[in-house]
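Hello,

I think I submitted the pyridoxal-5'-phosphate job twice by accident. Can you confirm which output corresponds to this input? Input:
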Amino acid sequence: MDKIFKRYTAVQNRIIRAAEKAGRSPADITLVAVTKTWPVETTLVAYAAGMRHFGENRVEELARKRTAVAQQLGPDNGITWHLIGTLQSRKTGLAAVHADLFHALDRLKIANRLANHLETKAAPRSPLPLFLEVNVSGEASKSGWQMSAWEEDATQRETLRNAAHTIAELPGLELAGLMTMAPWGVADALIQSVFRRTRQLGDWLAGELGRERPFALSMGMTDDFEIAIAEGATHIRVGRAIFGSRNN
Ligand SMILES: *Cc1c(COP(=O)(O)O)cnc(C)c1O
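Support: Only one job matched these inputs. Its output is below.
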């Protein structure tokens, strides 16, 4: 308990410092505490420490923890559950019921299936806000729309714009913004350029869709969230800096 509380406080202070440096308000940055692989007890400890946004990368784990936590704390516990990992199409029903936000939409097919589930769902939690995952770094291992050369490549831009248009028209969904992951183990300057280019892509896309406000940006993890905040992240997804390393 003590350890998690201390680490959480340290992360909050780092967010405040990074925001101040960037001339931004810390209130505009949502810290999503990533509890994947940790037991439900860890989520309850984090809740007692004050955390209210939890991220899971597997939808079954999210559904299981959401249910267990609601049994302990009641259904009106004020928690927002973020699904941060990519979703397989046969699990869209589970996500429609249990996820409050979805950060990793990587295919139109998933959006269509989510919309179908949300349209017929009894629970009045829709629309489901979602982020389009974009692969700006170009790494083959990363999912998301291929946007490694979007500034030069009109085809990449058009593919994303068409997908975004379609998704914006689907019932039950709300296109909230873009999500990206920086490459690992590279220089800060490269990480920074991936985050900056994602923000610029979001600005471009918001303009194409006639949005008045900029898109939200889900980017930044334990090793790079300060760079992400400097580049405009509105949602950071942090696990290890709060809960320690995942050796389970
Ligand atoms: C695990 C995970 C995180 C958190 O990573 P840390 O390095 O523990 O902060 C963030 N985003 C996604 C998509 C993840 O799967």
